Predict the 3D structure of the following.
Amino acid sequence: MIILKNMKLLLITILLFLGNINAAMAAPEIQADVRYLYVQPGQTLHNIVSKLYPNRKKDWPRLRREIVKINPDSFVGGKESQMKAGVRLELPKRHVARRKTEKIAPLYVGDVVRTRGEALAVGKDRISRSLTAGDRVYLGDKLITGEDGFMRLHMIDDAFLDLRCFSIMIIEEYALQDKNRRSIFNLLQGSLRKVTGEIGKWGDDVYELKTPVASVGVRGTEYALRVFQSKGCGGTVDTKDDGLYLKVIKGIVDVHNNKRDIQTAVVKGDTLYVKTPEAKPVKNGVQPGVLSPVIKVEKIPEPEPEPEPEESSDWVWWLLVLALLAV
């Protein structure tokens, strides 16, 4: 009986010993997103790094050195080949690599023809730049003029645009492709005079001037507009509100605000006044001096119109022939 009992104890001891060996040899799976782990008996630093960073084989030597540097007391004599079992090992912080974004050049949409006073542009990169004659403007630019500011733009479709003082306008869209002709500006405040170019002449063209009060759709025209600008500048007078004031010089425009069921057409020589985004547009409600200067200031020459074709001078030669025959 005693011998049998001793044999059972010996068998249990052998099984426990074998279990410890298996546990020491079986390294647990290590998650790559852990920040700490406890070193198990039988684990090596190479084994830990290779399982944590399987796709970064080229970085393994550097990572091993970094772990030793962070955990000097976890290694015997500071050697990575001799790890202490049971110690808490701190792992390097995960570095998220930022993707390199390719810088896209801004899209050129027009040139600055003339400026006066403060004239600025703020690009999509939020960097501001002063504008002078010969500079370019780009899609997404926010154009700004000061109290005495003025700028004239010549757009890629041969349109001319005068942005007067105290103005802020964004070039939201401008495209001249055959199947996608679009011109969309957002005048946040200020005064402008616009002579449309090629965009707006075709039936499928998209042309819109957005303002805080109403939007203007254009069909081959020239017009002057003032919005959200109660203080006069550049020779214009003050107004009692920040409404929209419009005058059509040539062609026709359509105006609509928050009352979508109301769309007002304004033709050559007519004016329009819209007090608020919810108000009904009022025709011919613009007083003198609101859109055109009444105070003497430096006159800004208007954009030169296209030259008219020269008339034939053949009749002069006929008169000379008749005179010679009479003699």
